[in-house]
Write a structure and sequence with these properties.
Elements: H1 4-39, H2 44-90, H3 101-146, H4 151-165, E1 170-171, E2 177-178, H5 180-206, E3 211-214, E4 231-233, E5 242-243, H6 244-249, E6 261-263, H7 278-315, H8 324-333, H9 336-353
Parallel strand pairs: 4-5
Antiparallel strand pairs: 1-2, 3-4, 3-6
Helix pairs in contact: 1-2, 1-4, 1-5, 2-3, 2-5, 3-4, 3-5, 4-7, 7-8
The structure holds zinc ion.
Zinc ion is lined by residues 221, 223-224, 254, 257-259.
């Protein structure tokens, strides 16, 4: 049976997946609009319609994101806080009824900062589509002056770019590049994790509980392995324990982390927990980092394959496997069918480039 922490992590993941799906659909719709527009690049009125359609998709996306930030995030936060409440009760403590101002405020801050990030993304996509529109509209004016269909080259360049990269080029504050799906995925996963950890933490602190225990998993993420089962102080006020922030500095609760924490009561703990020495943690962390590099390398390869699949879907919608997992297994096996598909992709590509 899954423990309370595991249920929480699953709730967070389900909420993140919902948003990922939503952004994935919007990205496909916008790409369709753009590709249709680029084929009719000499029809300025059609292009204006395209611009309006994309804007409508982006507005829907932003409304949906806002709803998600205002409903799903607080829900995950409250679930995190409730889990902490149950732990306090199970330990014989009395739980303060309801969720007061500190919780409301914490949930609001989380929602606002997530919404800002989604806002940045949709504004960026809007500007990019507007740039494409403007470039084509200007070429149309130029074409009517010089009597030469110069828009076709511009449209072809954009078509190639979109087929190769999708709608990418969005950079976050750290300068990393994202596409719509990957950015939405990263933001939703990190914010839901934060929301449930913050909920638990604030509820425990509200009841004057400072010590937590890090969850254990059958197949832990490597960076967190050294911290499994360790007891940490939320604030640093309990002597003899390392702090949550210190552990985060070592990589605990990295993006896509599966871990969580729950209340720890020394008086109820049967077996005295072994607290690892700093040198032991450092030693284990070094080893874990190596594993983590392998682990992220594997993840990177899957991400690369996913991007490739998306490009194939755009260029060869009828020949590419409909699901990513089918594409991935075909690619991993390097089957005859996969080689044929690659060949076809190149052929159609050079036909587009003509
Ligand atoms: Zn982890």
């Amino acid at each position: 049976m899954p423990g309370p922490n595991e249920k929480l992590v699953r709730l967070s993941e389900a909420e993140a997946a919902r948003l990922f799906e939503f952004y994935g659909q919007a990205e496909t719709e916008i790409l369709n609009e753009l590709n249709k527009g680029l084929l009719k690049g000499n029809d300025t009125r059609y292009l204006q319609g395209m611009l309006q359609n994309v804007q409508a998709i982006l507005n829907d996306l932003l409304n949906g994101s806002q709803q998600w930030c205002e409903e799903a995030l607080p829900q995950v936060y409250i679930a995190g806080a409730e889990a902490a409440g149950e732990q306090i009760e199970a330990a014989g403590g009395r739980v303060i009824a309801g969720f007061g101002a500190i919780h409301q405020q914490a949930a609001r801050v989380l929602a606002e900062s997530a919404l800002n990030r989604f806002n940045d993304l949709t504004s960026f996509i809007g500007r990019r589509v507007n740039d494409i529109y403007r470039a084509l509209a200007l070429e149309n004016v130029r074409g009517s002056v010089v009597g030469y269909k110069s828009w076709q080259q511009v449209a072809k360049n954009y078509r190639e770019q979109l087929a190769e990269q999708g709608i990418t080029g969005f950079k976050d504050v750290k300068g990393r590049q994202w596409n719509m799906r990957s950015y939405a995925d990263m933001v939703s996963r990190t914010t839901t994790m934060e929301a449930h950890l913050e909920g638990t933490k604030n509820r425990l602190l509200e009841h004057d509980r400072d010590l937590v225990k890090i969850s254990r998993h059958s197949n832990p993420c490597p960076l967190c392995r050294p911290w499994e089962g360790q007891i940490l102080s939320l604030t640093g006020r309990t002597e003899g324990y390392r702090t949550l922030d210190e552990a985060k500095g070592f990589g605990l609760f990295h993006p896509r982390c599966k871990h969580a924490f729950g209340l720890f009561l020394p008086e109820l703990a049967g077996e005295p927990e072994e607290t690892k020495s700093m040198s032991q943690i450092s030693r284990e962390s070094e080893a874990a980092k190596k594993d983590y590099l392998e682990f992220t390398k594997e993840q990177r390869q899957v991400n690369e394959a996913r991007k490739q699949w998306q490009k194939y879907m755009v260029r060869l919608p009828n020949d590419t496997p409909k699901t990513f997992s089918a594409f991935l297994s075909m690619k991993r096996a390097n089957s005859e069918k996969y080689q044929e598909l690659q060949q076809l992709y190149r052929e159609v590509g050079s036909a587009i480039k003509g």
